[in-house]
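[Automated response] Your request has been received and processed.

Submitted sequence:
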Amino acid sequence: MTPYSIPVILNFDKAYSLPATVTIFSLLKNHPGQSFKIYLILAESNPEWMEPLLKMVQNLGSEVIIKSVDLDLLSHIKLNEHFTLATYFRLFAANLIEEPKALYLDSDILINGDLTELWETDLGDYPIAAVQDFFIDDFHRLDLSIHTGYFNSGVMVLQLNEWRKLDLGNTTMEYITEFPEKILFADQCGLNAVLQGNWYHLPPKWNLQSHEIQDTEFIFNKSYFSKNDWNEALNQPKIIHFTGLPKPWNLGGNHPYKPLYWHYLKQSPLSRKLPLNFTLTNLLKANVPLPMKKLYWRYLSNRKVKSNG
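Generated structure:
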């Protein structure tokens, strides 16, 4: 615990208000007695849908500071179905937030322990501390190498003073604009391309990603960290990052930490009993085995043929 409020940054839109609330709730519940300054970078200055989150944070002894982004600054960004404009808001963090240092968290994250050790990491002159994304290996796409690596930007310690010195946000935006064909994972690709390995490598317990749980044989064969590091990450992760699909608040999936996610969700002000995307159609899609789905589709096709005949 620190005697001052720790700055934490999130950026999201209304569609992610529920998971963002769970992320922040898990952060606060794992740090009794520690206060946080939670900076939310949004497209709106004071949206009504934020009220439950604002009250929750206040009741748990921390504060929320909302910073808004002018969407015209992102009008040239090419989007795909997986990333919205809100994904890029963090690139403006150093300009919007007058802090020398901050934690950044994605909104599909669950905090599972004390983050004091992470916060107190000495970054030296590095602008970012992050965990490598071991399943990104097409380094040539961004003119990287196996030695520079590629980090996952879902959890970062940001030295914002270094960001400002490097003008990292603007430089990254320029890269994304100039080379849209190289951008597969939004500003994460841009940051990696611009930094060219100039980042501090954190152990995997600080950002356990879903694909690492699904393919442990792959990660144990990686030489970046010891088997003990990976065992700690898999069995006692400090931060669980629900990368990929399905997300834990929706139907489907067998992520081992999904029950823990719902433990926090049900205690949060946005508590619910059913998944966010629950409909009978989605329930069938998520639970009916593929062979049965094919039989059903064939049955419908045959009925259609007979009715037309």
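Summary generated for your ticket: The chain is about 35% helix and 15% strand. The CA atoms of residues 269 and 278 lie 19 Å apart.
If you did not submit this request, please reply to this message.
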